[in-house]
Structures are given as C-alpha cells and as structure tokens.
Amino acid sequence: MIMRKLLTAGAVCGLLSLLTGGPLAPGASADEPTAHPAPKVELVLDVSGSMRARDIDGESRMSAAKQAFDDVLDSTPPDVQLGIRTLGADYPGNDRKTGCKDTRQLYPVGPLDRTEAKAAVATLAPTGWTPIGPALLAAAADLKGGEGTRRMVLITDGEDTCGPTNPCDVARDIAAQGVDLTIDTLGLIPDASTRNQLSCIAGATGGTYTTVQHRQQLTTKVKQLVGRSDAHTATPVATQGGATCAAAPELRQGLYSDRETFSENRWYRVQVPSGSELRASVSIAADRQVNADYGVLLRGVTMRGREIVRDDEGGTGRTDAVSAGIRYPKPDAASGTPPETVCLQVGNSYSAPASVKTTPGLPVELSIDLVKSPDKPSDVAFLGLGRGWWLLGLLTVTGAVLGLFTGWIARWRLNTGRTV
Q1: Is 325 domain-assigned?
Q2: Which parts of the chain span the membrane according to its record (predicted)?
Q3: Confidence of residue 141 (pLDDT cuts 50, 70, 90)
Q4: Structural domain of residue 313, as residue ranges?
C-alpha cells in the first residue's frame, strides 16, 4: 500500500509538471513572434451549366472541381479563415435578370469545419448562368473586416454572361477601394476570350491567372494560393535577376516575381545561416504560344561555382506552368560563423514560333523560405507547450524515476520487516 501511494505520488508529480509547468516552466519568451491577424480567403466557384462538360481527365469540370476542393479543404492551414461562394448554382431558367443575381455564399468566411464545408460542396450540380461581376462584388463584401490579408480565388470555365458591366471593371473598382484584397483567377479549359477576361481581373488587383487543363493542376494551384494567404507576403515582390551570381540581387525569405526571355538564365543570391534549411521553388508560366517540349531549371551553387543541389522539370505543351524546387540544409557551425551565400540559377528551355513575340519575357515566380534544419530539434513546440519543453520533459522523467525508486525502497523495507 505504501509503495503504491509513493509510486502514485511520484507519477502524479511528473504528470503535473508536464501539464502545468509549475513555477519552473517558462512562459512565452519575449523573442517569440507575435500573432498575426488571421488571413481570409474565399473560393468563388462557377457552377454554371457549362461545368457539365467532360473534358478534364475524362470527367466533368464540376467533378474535377469537387475533388480539388476536398483536397484543398484537407490542407488548409488552421489559422486561415476560409469561405466558399458559388455563382450560377441555383437558377436553371432563361430569365437573364434572375440568372444574373444567382450567387450565394455556400460556406461563410471563418474558422473551417472541414466536414461541413465538404458536405456543402458535395451538393452542388451545374445549373445556370455565369454572373462573375456580381459574384466578385459579393465576395469582396464577404471578406471585409479584420486586419489580415484577403484573397479571392475565382474558378470558372467561361466569361461573364451577364453584362453590361465588365467584371474586369468590377475588379478595378474593388482595387480602387484601397482594401488589401487580391483576386486570383483560374480558367478551366478556357478559350482566348475567357483567358483575356480572367487575366484582366487578376491583373487589376495584383493577382495571378492560370489556365487549368487537369484536375491535379487545379488542386495544386488552389492549395498554393490558399497557402500563400497564410504567408505574410501575400503579393510577389518584383525583382530582376542578374546575368551572373556576382551581379545577382540578394533575396530574403518571401515571394518574388521576375520575367525571363526564351532560353535565358538568371541568378539570385540567398544568405543561408548555419542550422537553417533553404527551400526554394520556381514556376515559369507560358503566357503565350510556345513549342512543345520545354523545361525549367533551378539549381544552387556556391560563390565559386560548385553545384550543391538542383532540380529540373519538363513540359510537353499540356500545361501553362512548370515548377521546380530544391532544399539545401546548412549544418550547424561554430558560433559567429557567417551565413553561406547560395547562388540560385533559374533557367528555361522554352522556344516559340517565329510569329510569337518574345517580349516581355515569361512570368517567373520564385519562392524563398528559410527554416530551422529538420536534423536539429526545434524548441518551438512539443505537445503544444512552446519553448522550454525539454525542462518539462526532464521534470516528468525525474518524477517518474523518483517514484519508482521510492516505491522500490518501500517494498524492500516491507519485505525486511522494517517500517518507514
């Protein structure tokens, strides 16, 4: 009995030290990053009748969008407030006035309940008109309030069918309001007129336009855009790569945009501190007609020209963008060791028919991230306890060992006929 009590006391002591931290557990350190305002994202989905077309990997555009939404909802960062708005989902008739009011918020912008959001999307069926302009205005209202970044992602397979107001003018009016709102557009198997309209909408607010021909491409792009809202560089920063590493601009963590002519190489520099890992990715978009079979190269080299990491990806003309990515961990070094300069080379092997203009160059989007190397334990979080988890773990182990030792002594004394 005595042994059990002592064992229990020791174990409870250790458990309490883990759960409460007691007076010895450090609180949030002053140098921890402060909380950022929650970013807001609304996905605006076209559910008009044309979404019945079965030309995305052998399935309907609507089916591809639903599957993409399931994947995106599963991967949405926890601090992103996400909503979903539809256009053309409810009115199947021919009355233009009624059809052009057919937009509603399917899921409100706020903390995400994945099950509820997925259930709402599952009920959708291609129905009516394509009131893009009214949907943009309504979505802008949905995203009002708060101090975080705001992003709208419009997914459609056609032009606005309502007029006479051009949705590009609507996007310009939204931008003129001075709110921090970016509109990105994705066109599902679009024709030239649709591409022009969606490009204009995106350009009015500093957003991006992407043509989508495959379901996985749709999933990847929407995930990227939703994830970008969680970063604190919501809009790419314009830069210009150098012809050599020595002449290259120095980039910090963030998202950057540039342009490359056909078959060009450009250079950028990043300072990688010891104990950190450089994660870089690049996407180059074919925003005009190009010849089939092309590639994108991203590689990291030292200032002396020694290659340390590389990735190259190819395309065949079926996608509008090709991406490559690299990771380079910098091992821990002695205190005071300066960061290592890594030169990033971004190249492409695009070519085009003689009738295609080569200027301006192809759009380049470069992402730079510096994180603590995965081979070094992080002191940021352990069971959600933050800095100082190692001390709490030590207290727990000490309490458990002390309890076992005390119990063993008590049992030995009982077996030898002694009393405590």
Answers
A1: yes
A2: 388-410
A3: very high
A4: 237-372
